[in-house]
Write a structure and sequence with these properties.
InterPro entries: Acid_Pase_AS, His_Pase_clade-2, His_PPase_superfam, Histidine_acid_phosphatase. With 457 residues, the chain is an alpha/beta fold. The protein contains 15 helices and 12 strands. The protein has one domain: 3-Layer(aba) Sandwich (Rossmann fold). The two termini are 22 Å apart. The N terminus is likely disordered.
């Protein structure tokens, strides 16, 4: 998610367009109301669906398969998540599907406005009234573009239950930090996860404060407003990377065909837009929610619809772009540095607080972000292959700090798990990497003078 100016600006990998507003105040804790559904119903039959499953549902860590290193004590876990399933951000000229988010209405206490007769509760409800003169500009239902769906909330509840089972002893210590980007779906995802966690182990300090910062100074995602060099690198990557140019040439026919079917050539300025992220956004949203793929308005006459083969190619293109932008491309290291480098400093500081035995050290930290929070972090950590694909909904990176027992000196080690399995990298064994080596590696992505490095060159 690249950040530009708006109350909420939500982008998939290098996505430059705006959506609705962030309705939650800075630092506000909001209880989440979700219609419950069994985990079996949510996950039934999805394991066998190959690419669909891989993007639609990240694998969840499981207490039964979670292995603790022998003779070691867990000191800290830093959990980084992507929000759960959401409605698309891009709205097509001819929307023929319905997106429902009504079961995620939020009951919000109004502190400071108590008239002595009890606490007031208000409910936020999104709707698309059929009699609205502009209703044809969006789908029907009760979801704003880019809004967390009930399915997405259930994904996070499931993840929270897993965290509660695995990290009970850390959570019981009461030292918890929660931070989210100032976007509705990431805040709701954090709340849903905490609800799931609290169902497994009681969180002692409540309300749990979900901290945010204004989007214009956010460091958990690429921030194009505060850091214009991000946009410049994006254009340089497309214009100067021979591999990217070749990729676009190979896929030109597919892009034109998609524009013809969906009516998006003028809407998205496709002649100058050099990415498949918007197509990915539309197709992934529909695929993950069992909705029909887009068809042209004249379908009854000529049968023009996006095919499953086209959808598979779009998924492949999205994975390729993610790898190229944040891991393999000529500008990847600089892009990662100016996008999330200062946030990596924050993560490093959390670990050093344990190394130095500070009294205010945090035992469990949760960061709720986007695909463009997770993907740059994976790039910084050196992920490769399928682990560097476009991060699925509810993706989770667990950075664990361990103390080796039965030794005379203080030996600290780091383990990194991604969607339930060890992260495979070349520079260190992230199932047991020394803290010093880990800090040295991520340190190369921490900017010296971020404001200066963000200027146009």
């Amino acid at each position: 998610m690249l950040i530009t100016r708006s109350s909420v600006i939500v982008l998939s990998v290098v996505l430059f367009f705006f959506i609705g507003s962030a309705l939650l105040a800075h630092g506000l804790y909001v209880p989440l109301v979700v219609q419950q559904e069994s985990d079996q119903t949510l996950w039934e039959g999805r394991e066998s669906k190959g690419p669909e499953f891989a993007y639609c549902h990240a694998r969840t860590p499981d207490v039964e398969t979670y292995k603790r290193p022998k003779d070691a004590k867990l000191l800290q876990t830093i959990a980084v998540i992507r929000h759960g399933d959401r409605s698309p951000i891009a709205v097509l000229p001819y929307e023929n599907v319905t997106w429902e988010c009504a079961s995620l209405d939020q009951n919000i206490p109004a502190p400071g406005f108590n008239n002595g007769r009890g606490k007031l509760q208000t409910a936020l409800h999104m709707s698309v009234p059929g009699d609205n003169p502009f209703s044809a500009a969006i789908w029907s239902g009760s979801c704003a573009p880019g809004q967390l769906t009930p399915k997405g909330a259930k994904q996070q509840i499931k993840l929270g239950k897993a965290f509660g089972d695995i990290y009970k002893h850390l959570i019981r210590k009461g030292s918890i930090k929660v931070r989210s980007t100032d976007v509705w779906r990431t805040q709701q995802s954090a709340e849903a996860l905490l609800a799931g966690m609290n169902s497994r182990v009681s969180i002692s300090r409540q309300p749990v404060v979900v901290k945010t910062v204004p989007l214009r100074i956010e460091t958990m995602v690429p921030n194009t407003e505060a850091c214009p060099r991000v946009t410049q690198l994006w254009h340089d990557n497309q214009g100067q990377d021979v591999e990217w140019s070749s990729y676009l040439t190979r896929n030109e026919g597919l892009r034109k065909r998609l524009d013809e079917i969906m009516g998006t050539e003028e809407l998205w300025d496709s002649a100058n837009y050099r990415s498949f992220d918007r197509y990915f956004d539309v197709i992934a949203g529909r695929t993950c929610n069992n909705k029909p793929l887009p068809c042209s308005p004249g379908r009854a006459i000529n049968g023009d619809c996006v095919t499953s083969e086209m959808a598979e190619q779009i998924f492949e293109n999205g994975n390729w772009e993610t790898k190229r932008l944040f891991a393999e491309g000529p500008f990847a290291k600089e892009l990662v540095t100016i996008s999330i480098g200062d946030w990596l400093r924050e993560i490093r500081n959390l670990m050093e607080a344990h190394e130095q035995r500070n009294e205010d050290r945090v035992h469990f930290s949760l960061y709720s972000g986007h695909d463009t929070t997770v993907a740059p972090l994976l790039g910084a950590l050196g992920a490769r292959g399928r682990q560097m694909n476009w991060p699925p909904y509810a993706s989770n990176i667990l950075i664990e700090l361990w103390k080796q027992a039965k030794v005379d000196h203080e030996a600290l080690f780091v383990r990194v798990l991604y969607n339930g399995e060890p992260l495979d990298v070349e520079w260190c064994d992230l199932s047991w990497c020394s803290l010093s080596e880990f800090k040295k590696h991520i340190g190369q992505f921490v900017p010296v003078e971020l404001v200066k490095e963000c200027q146009l060159q």
